[in-house]
Amino acid sequence: MQSTLNLRRRFLRAGGCLLSVAMLPQVLFAQSAKLKIGFIGAGRIGGGLARLWGAAGYPVMLSARELGPVQELAAQIGPNAKVGTPGEAAAFGDVVVVTVPYSALPQVGHDYASELKGKIVLDTCNPNVQRDGPMTQEALQKGTGVMDPIYLPGTRLVRAFSTVGAALLVPLAQRKEGRTGVPLASDDKEALKIAAQLVRDAGFDPVIVGGLSTAQSFDSGHGIHGTMTASEVRAALAIK
Q1: Confidence tier at 41 by pLDDT (50, 70, 90)
Q2: In this predicted model, which residue has the larger pLDDT, 13 or 124?
Q3: Residue 101, class by beta-carbon neighbours within 10 Å (0-12 exposed, 13-18 middle, 19+ buried)?
Q4: Which residues on neighbouring strands pair with residue 229, listed in sequence order?
Q5: Which residues, 6 or more positions from 131, have their beta carbon under 8 angstroms from its beta carbon?
């Protein structure tokens, strides 16, 4: 009887080990899986970032109200890219990049509130008086980091990629030395960590500036631009 019990115990232990080994690839896959990134806006900034993250292995979804124009871009990016409506991209992404004319932010926040709720949102949008009209005045006076949460409520907002010109985005990401510094601001520490890793994987160096209110220090017109290295950005913003 005792020998039978011992045999059963050895069998169960062996079975448990086999099960653990069988599950190991699934565990490793879960740990190494890339975050999905949705794009609301597929212009030069959105398209450029999608190219960079798609090449780095991230699943990306580009969006537009008319899908035809972005189909070609997705095909160029390759198998990691797909297209959808803005609502589908917002639902798809673990991280959502909002890269639209600044005047469109209130509408984006309204139309896709449920899809964006609780998600990390990288906001690249800069106010431009000539393009966006009077609604930019408050953002220019108070700072985008103060105003943007009003337009995108309920999100884990990070100001990011607002200082790199669209035409230079992909070329700068290919610099092997003196990588461009990308300032980041957010009130969410975990969102900042994820955004910083995305910045690195795109080919840039993250510069953590502080909470959302500090985004004003690198808003348009404050002298921070895309050709500056991370150390130059830190020096300009007096960040130790």
Answers
A1: very high
A2: 124
A3: middle
A4: 180
A5: 101, 102, 103
Query: What backbone torsions phi and psi does residue 81 show, to the nearest 5 degrees?
Result: -110, 145
DSSP E strands in the chain: the ranges are 37-40, 60-63, 81-84, 95-98, 120-123, 156-159, 181-186, 205-210
Taking alpha carbons only, the member of 36, 93, 38, 40 closest to residue 59 is 36
Beta-carbon contacts of residue 152 (< 8 Å; ≥ 6 apart): 98, 105, 108, 109, 116, 121, 123
Is the Cβ–Cβ distance between 164 and 124 less than 8 Å?
no
Nearest to 158 by CA among 144, 170, 172: 144
Residues 109, 113, 116, 117: is their CA dihedral positive or negative?
positive
Mean per-residue pLDDT over the chain, rounded: 87
Cβ 198 vs Cβ 136: under 8 Å: no
* Residue 80 pLDDT: 97
Asked if the model's pLDDT at residue 7 lies above 80, the reply is no
Region of 136 please: left (phi>0), alpha (psi -120 to 50) or beta: alpha
